[in-house]
Amino acid sequence: MATTHDTAQPAAQEDRIIIFDTTLRDGEQSPGCSMNVEEKLRVAAVLEGMGVDVIEAGFPIASEGDFHAVNEIAKRVKESVVCGLARAAAADIDRAGEALQPAARKRIHTFIGTSPLHRKYQLQLDAEQVHERVIDSVTRARRYTDDVEWSGMDASRTEPEFLFRCIESAIKAGATTINIPDTVGYAYPEEFADLIREIRNQVPNIDKAIISVHCHNDLGLAVANSLRAVEAGARQIECTINGIGERAGNCSLEEVVMAMRVRADRLPYRTRIVTQDIMKASRLVSAITGFQVQPNKAIVGANAFAHESGIHQDGVLKNAQTYEIMRPEDVGLVRSSLVMGKHSGRHAFKKKLEDLGYALGENALNDAFVRFKALADKKKEVFDEDIVALVDDEIQEA
Ligand code: KIV
Ligand code: ZN
């Protein structure tokens, strides 16, 4: 097992994983995490810039605000595919089609619960009725775009034979991505990988579609399940910045992407993600949603690259690889040597912000600088964390 700082992406001929970010849809479904249109636009711009392939921008039928957000994102984002969610109902699909109309590249993501529990209690439909809706919904979504994703909600608790039949029919109706959600985070990595392998073996026309996975983190297994699914043949991972999402959240983008990058020896896959933008995205989402990142969170937590014990500090000073498996710079964390205090000028402050991953407009920069000076008058040294807090406040108030 090589432990090296050389975390370069694997070569181009190796397998490519599509990164589908659902921070603005599933992430926003975390209690207390809702974002307004302007906030969603800012997050979408960062996601596009960092190389996310598909941005799930929202659930257009859910509210006027969500429709508007998806519509505005569809107008502005050019590089990433913009996706809107729709239940297996004509009104949902039409609304998503309408919201996505201006997009350069658009996808409709339609879903229905397939498991016995969802059929019986949530939908009150029998298996045949659910199967019919799969065909009808995908067929309708194809009126708006030829990029249609179909999800069998609670797939990991669905009878495999029924799931395979729904997948086959979704592909026949025109779905080009088949998403397998572990909706309640119940799956275990090996078992989830077996399900993906079985889908590839049992569904006759599966080669016509990309297999995607959407793992929730109720047992803390979302990243592990996604990675095992990729090894079994999935080629799209659905994830969120900071792992936010329903209940315990979704697979975390930064963790799954960095796992593939750092362990390219074991996971020879490539993504388009500019990993140096990870901290910027994490801080923005945290500032906008008000959801603090836990200090010991992998990759983006405040302690992820901090070394407290003497032995560790000594080791890192001699050679960082003793206790660091990736370079902080590779996730956008610049160890800035600028010491900030009351004598620091606006120029140094701006440079410090850039080192920390922030690019503020002139007005926001001026406001932040005034607040920095006020703080510097009270403190001997203003630490990076103080500046991050100060700027996050600035962003929230903007
Ligand atoms: O968790 C889930 O099943 C979902 C679907 C809408 C894909 O979020
Ligand atoms: Zn979900």
Automatic annotation (TrEMBL):
What's the protein here called? 2-isopropylmalate synthase
Cofactor dependence is on: Mn(2+)
Q: Which keywords does this Swiss-Prot/TrEMBL entry list?
A: Acyltransferase, Amino-acid biosynthesis, Branched-chain amino acid biosynthesis, Cytoplasm, Leucine biosynthesis, Manganese, Metal-binding, Transferase
GO function term, MF aspect, one: 2-isopropylmalate synthase activity
Q: Record-annotated residues binding Mn(2+)?
A: 26, 214, 216, 250
KW Transferase (keyword) present: yes
Q: Provide the transmembrane region boundaries.
A: none
According to its UniProt entry, the function of this protein is described as:
Catalyzes the condensation of the acetyl group of acetyl-CoA with 3-methyl-2-oxobutanoate (2-ketoisovalerate) to form 3-carboxy-3-hydroxy-4-methylpentanoate (2-isopropylmalate).
The Pyruvate carboxyltransferase domain, residue ranges = 17-279
Which family does the entry's similarity section mention? Belongs to the alpha-IPM synthase/homocitrate synthase family. LeuA type 1 subfamily.
**How the protein assembles, per its UniProt entry?**
Homodimer.
Q: What EC designation does it have? A: 2.3.3.13
- Top-rank taxon of the source lineage equals Bacteria
> Which pathway is it part of?
Amino-acid biosynthesis; L-leucine biosynthesis; L-leucine from 3-methyl-2-oxobutanoate: step 1/4
Chemical reaction(s) catalysed: 3-methyl-2-oxobutanoate + acetyl-CoA + H2O = (2S)-2-isopropylmalate + CoA + H(+)
Lineage, top ranks: Bacteria, Pseudomonadati, Pseudomonadota, Alphaproteobacteria, Geminicoccales
